[in-house]
Amino acid sequence: MSKKNDVPLPEVNIGMVGHVDHGKTTLVAALSGVWTDRHSEELKRGISIRLGYADTTFRRCPEDGEYTVERVCPKHNVETEILRTVSFVDSPGHETLMATMLSGAALMDGAVLVIAANEKCPRPQTKEHLMALNIIGVDKIVIAQNKIEIVSKERVLENYREIQEFIKGTVAEDAPIIPISAQQRVNIDVLIEAIEERIPTPERDLKSPPLLLVARSFDVNKPGTSPEKLVGGVLGGSLARGKIRVGDEIEVRPGIKDDRGNWNPVTSEVTSIMASGKNVEEATPGGLVGISTRLDPRLTKSDALSGNVLGHPDKLPDTLMDFTMEVKLLEKVVGTEEEIVVEKIKMNEPLMLSVGTATTLGVVTSARDDVIEVKLKRPVCAEEGWNVAVSRRIGSRWRLIGAGTIK
Ligand SMILES: Nc1nc2c(ncn2[C@@H]2O[C@H](COP(=O)(O)OP(=O)(O)OP(=O)(O)O)[C@@H](O)[C@H]2O)c(=O)[nH]1
Questions:
Q1: Which among 76, 82, 129, 313 would be 20 to 30 A from 305, CA to CA?
Q2: Are 377 and 397 within 8 A, CB to CB?
Q3: What does this protein do (predicted)?
Q4: Is 136 within 8 Å of 111 (Cβ atoms)?
Q5: Ligand 1 mean position to 153 CA, how many Å?
Q6: Ligand 1 proximity of 179 Cβ (cutoff 6 Å)
């Protein structure tokens, strides 16, 4: 695995999506050497719960042009050439964790849809994750057909045809399907090649004021640290545009709720920036960064500020307590085994809305055809034109039912 000190910083965020247990985390580990989600609760339940992040540098052997993540080609014993560094956003595949997946999707420039060959395709979250990518506007997709070493060749081919059938007419229609074994590291070179071809680094807007979508927030102090030694709150996320520098004054919106129920932005200063395990002076779009601030760490602990946006004071989008959106409903609910028809959105109906990395509950205050007004329980900071993933409570779960655009 490549060492981190002399490789470029990540320039693109690649999502790892798909049904639970199909091998997303194992594939991120095969590509980066990092197990993204092995903290106690996840180990106990055996599934990913939070978003995981890991970086890796794609390289090529100068002798045979083979793609690799190794610094030295094991076959030719020569130093490999650096192509680019990418950040993986590893999403949880369990059906109860769609809100987390959607918040991760807001950061993705492209995605690898992992589909296990030993199960019939499509499984419910294979469909729901692909639909989510479509709604959020992620259309650069590579399919990894995983676990091929535990099934017969016939089954690999049959499953391959199931995948081809499934992606017809979807946003992944032209996506390459790469048979792999994440666990045995089979065909990883071909997968990297497909990612390199399929998921280019997008053009970045570096001139506009910065807008960082906050996906995690932390109190990094050990319990019992004395007040004078406390380190300020840390916010993790990815820049959608612009640059953030150490020393910048920043604002975080919507911020926090006061005793009277009003939401107030919080302001602070950037004290340091971590990207790819390194301290940097400046963060740019592409890759996940950790922004250390002078904020009271109690405000940032346990992801309390995830779903906020961070930028320069007075240069962020408005905080919205309600908004109007144009909604396109799906025909059927895709995230369940049994696909039921999606009924029209009704007045007073509660909806779960995913906007950027934020998840909020909205109550419908007006429903005219495809134009829906919602009043939010918790405000979001967003702009006209942003995509909204709309979910409805069906049985005991929130299910994706449509795509909205803020008007
Ligand atoms: N045989 C085989 N098992 C695999 C392969 N890839 C992953 N697995 C196994 O499949 C199980 C699930 O793998 P994970 O990587 O945790 O799956 P995941 O998609 O990240 O799961 P969630 O994040 O919880 O949705 C683990 O027991 C892995 O060891 C593979 O290529 N072959």
A1: 129
A2: no
A3: eIF-2 functions in the early steps of protein synthesis by forming a ternary complex with GTP and initiator tRNA.
A4: no
A5: 20
A6: no
Q: What is the pLDDT of residues 344-395, one digit of tens each?
A: 999 999 999 999 999 999 999 999 989 999 999 999 999 999 999 999 999 8
Ligand-binding annotation for 22, yes or no, is yes
Indicate which residue's Cα is closest to atom 24 of ligand 1: 47
**DSSP-derived secondary structure letter, 385:** T
Q: What is the atom index within ligand 1 of the atom nearest the CA of 22?
A: 19
What gap in Å lies between CA 233 and CA 302, rounded to an integer?
11
Is ligand 1 within 6 A of the CB of residue 36? Answer: no
pTM for this prediction = 0.94
Q: Is 146 annotated as a binding residue?
A: yes
The CA angle 352-348-213, to the nearest 5 degrees, is 25
Q: What is the ipTM of this complex?
A: 0.99
Q: Is the CB of 47 inside a 6 Å radius of any atom of ligand 1?
A: yes
Question: What domains are there in the chain, each with its CATH number?
Answer: 12-198 (3.40.50.300), 211-311 (2.40.30.10), 319-406 (2.40.30.10)
267 is in an annotated binding site: no
- For ligand 1, say whether the CB of 147 is within 6 Å of any of its atoms: yes
- Contact (Cβ atoms closer than 8 angstroms) between residue 288 and residue 10: yes
